[in-house]
Specification:
Strand content: 5-15%
Oligomer: single chain
Shape: flat
Number of helices: 18
Helix content: 55-70%
Structural class: alpha/beta
Number of strands: 10
Radius of gyration: 28 Å
Length: 542
């Protein structure tokens, strides 16, 4: 089962997605038919042999309907997993071909990356004139190394394509032969029955986001609602569950969080104690333990305020404070957005940063600003797990830490693809400070954007290279403090990289630390930066 590079460039998930929709419709119709048969049997009140025969016939038809529903559910899982795999492959194939084109290389009929004839001829001439062609000979080694790198990318993607095909064929054969997974059987059995919701939750298991989405789609509305109400902590944070459902579940999670915290100690009591300690602090009479207590109380008050502000706003796609996870939403996810914005904040971001006046201000203002251009947008502000710090295992200087955090940002990008927003919205990443490092690691791990905007971004991890299908821009105030990390031997910064267009703003005489903080703030505190970012997004959409 071979796949040529030429074939692979034509791969698209459209056919698989269309088949998925048809199978989903058939599954829902089969489910409805099974429910009608159950109702017919339940409501039939006749007695005697004829009645027994009728119930036996209904039971046999119900068994056939249940078997067909299970097979269709399994087929949904197989098709959606393949569709998402093909979509990711198509993105990476486009990026790799763009890189080949940028070097002006060719891929021949045998799927080998080749240097163009004119370049080979130049190198041949240089070898004849070694004394004058030393520079070209050096370039030949570089060109051949780059060719080998691109060949490795082509070979890897072709192997991945073969794997996707094998898995798809294997899955289709399983469905044909009635080899249904336990998960599909539980899901099929749950519709219109008294199956325990926990069994359905267990069925999600270690499923991928694409598989979870297919499983969720197979459930009837009442079952979905039961799961959201009874298991909000899981449903609100599970990749593959529709974002609108996650938003509603996380509203429940945030309300439950506030109720627990208020029961432990009321906000009124906390504020009273803060006021007492602040008065002592102003008088210069605060001891070491009281200073620590005051800091903790202020943090707790800000955490609660952040949760209230998200509830009053557009909610969250992830809310799991016990694991330091939050992905806030800014914008209307029920619309068909023309733009999806992923915001990756910098060092020191914590739960309290999501209060009004924090990391949600800039994306909220951008969503509103785009509306003035008749552009709809939704933004997602990501702090999905422990975040960049100044020291320790999460230090912003550790590439391994940036890669770990980058995997969570890549997961958010995958979630947005599974969501399948109408209209093919443009994807933009806006990354501040260490968020640049984190997002560059996300790109290495498969995240893809039409545009990446660094706002005083730090550095890119060592494995990163610019995607030729992505537009990169770096925006900062002049003399930003982050420029101290330029000119390093172990990383490249967006301020130095030729892959980034540069927009340097007048600092107005303020220092570099002020500019570094200000560039990530909303339009009221950061009017010049806000306008530059918005202008860049709008230009990218036109």
């Amino acid at each position: 089962m071979d796949v040529s590079w030429n074939d692979l460039q034509r791969w698209t998930p459209a056919g698989l997605e269309e088949s998925y929709d048809l199978v989903l419709s058939a599954q829902q119709e089969t489910e409805a038919a099974g429910d009608q048969l159950l109702s017919a049997k339940t409501n039939f009140s006749g007695e005697g042999q004829a009645a027994l025969a009728f119930r036996g016939i209904v039971d046999r038809y119900r068994a056939h309907a249940d078997d067909l529903e299970a097979r269709l559910t399994e087929l949904q899982i197989v098709l959606n997993q393949a569709a998402e795999a093909v979509e990711q492959l198509a993105i990476e194939v486009d990026s790799t071909q763009a890189a080949i084109d940028a070097e002006r290389y060719l891929v021949d009929a045998a799927d080998r990356v080749q240097l163009p004839d004119w370049l080979i001829e130049q190198f041949a001439q240089a070898k004849k004139q070694r004394s004058t062609g030393a520079t070209l000979l050096d370039l030949e080694g570089i060109a051949l190394q780059r060719r080998d790198e691109l060949q490795g990318a082509v070979d890897t993607l072709r192997e991945q394509a073969k794997s996707v095909l094998r898995e798809l064929v294997s899955g289709l054969l399983r469905v044909r032969d009635g080899e249904i997974s336990d998960a599909a059987q539980v899901l099929a059995d749950s519709n219109g029955s008294d199956a325990a919701p926990q069994e359905i939750i267990d069925a999600f298991g270690q499923a991928s986001a694409a598989q979870v989405r297919a499983m969720w789609d197979s459930l009837d509305f009442n079952t979905q609602r039961t799961l959201r109400i009874n298991f909000p902590e899981i449903i609100g944070n599970l990749s593959g569950i529709p974002l609108l459902v996650r938003q509603k579940a996380n509203d429940s999670n945030m309300n439950a969080y506030l109720e627990r915290e208020e029961a432990a100690r009321s906000s009124e009591e906390i504020q009273t104690r803060i006021d007492e300690l602040t008065a002592k602090e102003n008088e210069g009479n605060l001891g070491r333990k009281e200073r620590a207590e005051l800091a903790d109380l202020r943090d707790e008050a800000q955490r609660r305020q952040a949760v209230r502000d998200m509830l009053d706003g557009d909610g969250a796609a992830v809310f799991d404070p016990s694991n330091n996870r939050v992905v806030a939403i800014e914008g209307d996810i029920t619309s068909a957005p023309e733009h999806l914005i992923t915001v990756v904040p910098g060092t020191g971001t914590w739960m309290g940063s999501f209060a009004d006046g924090g990391v949600r201000d800039l994306p909220r203002d951008l969503v509103s600003g785009l509306q003035e251009f008749d552009r709809s947008a939704v933004a997602f502000v990501v702090k999905d797990g422990p975040w960049a710090s100044w020291a320790g295992e999460n230090s912003n200087m550790l590439h391994s830490a940036m890669e770990r955090m980058g995997s969570t940002v890549a997961n958010v990008d995958a979630d947005l693809r599974v969501e399948d927003f109408d209209g093919d919205p443009k994807e933009t990443a806006i990354v501040h400070s260490a968020g640049m490092s984190i997002n560059s690691a996300a790109e290495v791990q498969g995240a893809h954007y039409d545009e990446v905007i660094s706002i005083a971004g730090s550095y890119m991890v060592s494995d990163w290279e610019a995607d030729q299908t992505t537009e990169y821009t770096h925006i900062q105030y002049e003399a930003d403090a982050i420029n101290a990390v330029d000119r390093s031997d172990w990383h490249t910064t967006p301020n130095e990289s030729a892959d980034f267009d540069k927009v340097i703003l007048d600092s107005g005489g303020r220092d570099g630390v002020d500019g570094h903080t200000r560039i990530a703030q909303g339009k009221d505190r950061n009017p010049e930066g806000f306008k530059s970012i918005l202008d860049k997004i709008v230009d990218g959409l036109e």
